[in-house]
Amino acid sequence: MITRRDSLRLAASGLALALAMTATRATAAPLAEGKGGLVAFANAPFPYDGMIPIKDIPFIDVTEAGRRGHTVPRAGKVYWEDETYSDRRSIVYFPAGFDLAIPGVIIVYFHGNGATLERDVVARQQVPRQLAESGLNAVLLAPQFATDAPDSSSGNFWTPGFFARYLDEASAKMAEVYGDPSARSVFAEMPVVLLAYSGGYNPAAYAAALGNAGDRIRGIILIDALYAEEDKFAGWIEQNRSHAFFFSAYTKSAAASNATLRKLLSDAGIDFARRAPRNLTPGTVAFLATNPDLDHDDLVTRAWVNDPVAWLLARLDGFPR
């Protein structure tokens, strides 16, 4: 199990995860200990050389002394591709006890603005630890988006069908980390749950709406992660609620967008709850307005409960470890 102390110590020493990636002999038994790594992907969100949807303007809009950059309106400055939009790595993490022989699920985590995988996803937000403590038989995937920048851009995840290509490559990467390349076919069939925080709403929306992952996506969890793209989430809910769930918890900063989404659902005749669900089962559509005094920056670890990621994943039906 990854402890808070372990995560902080290893991040500070420059290690990517609380457990280093090691080659191990393949085994059908549950993992005796967790294993994971930061793994480079060919099909990563960045670098991205295409257009920004809706705006229909190039993402890379500045070239200066041979450097390529993207102007972030929120920050009022240019962020350079070689510093901010070039990290191809994703976290791949298996908790101790993960069992390939029983039903499992892939949790894809979208980290939001101003984040790095080591400093924020592992050490500050404690997502691998929370997954381990949830008891879910799951593997974590967490791609790096804009590195330590106030930018919600999805990069290649804006491209129709790209998320499916990312998942296809991930099946091979997960098999390598797991220690059995022949397990790729198992990972390629596993259902997927999207978990987004803050600015992670944008890639989550495009992955769900345009990613061509089909009914592999069995649920979407938003933690203060609805600031736009309400129509994409509404469309996905309408098309998939027979076999998937949706849950959004939010502070006052995301209240307006959550109200917009509820209005779209009401207009479509889709019922929803306004409380935390007992279980995340197919057909669940729920919203939770959290305490207005909660700090958005801490919501992944301190929300309506402490460690809300662990709390939610423990309620995901059908995949106990």
What can you see in these coordinates?
The protein has ten helices and 13 strands. Helix 1 packs antiparallel against helix 3 and helix 7 crosses helix 8. The protein folds into two domains: 264 residues, Alpha/Beta hydrolase fold, catalytic domain (Rossmann fold); 40 residues, no CATH class. The chain is an alpha/beta fold and 321 residues long. The two termini are 13 Å apart.
A few lines on this structure:
The protein is an alpha/beta fold and 321 residues long. It is built from 10 helices and 13 strands.
Compute the CA-based radius of gyration: 19 Å
Total of DSSP H or I helical runs spanning 4+ residues? 10
Number of strands: 13
The main β sheet shows up as:
8 strands, mixed
**Strand content of the residues, in percent?**
15-25%
Shape: globular
- CATH level 1 class label of the largest domain: Alpha Beta
CATH topology of the largest domain, by name, is Rossmann fold
Low-confidence stretches: 1-27
Note the gap between the termini. Answer: 13 Å
Summarize the helices and strands and which ones pair or pack.
Elements: H1 4-12, E1 35-40, E2 51-52, E3 57-58, E4 62-64, E5 67-72, E6 77-80, H2 81-84, E7 89-94, E8 105-110, H3 117-124, H4 127-134, E9 138-143, H5 162-178, H6 184-189, E10 192-197, H7 201-210, E11 217-223, H8 230-240, E12 245-250, H9 255-267, E13 285-289, H10 308-313
Parallel strand pairs: 8-9, 8-10, 10-11, 11-12, 12-13
Antiparallel strand pairs: 1-7, 2-3, 4-5, 5-6, 7-9
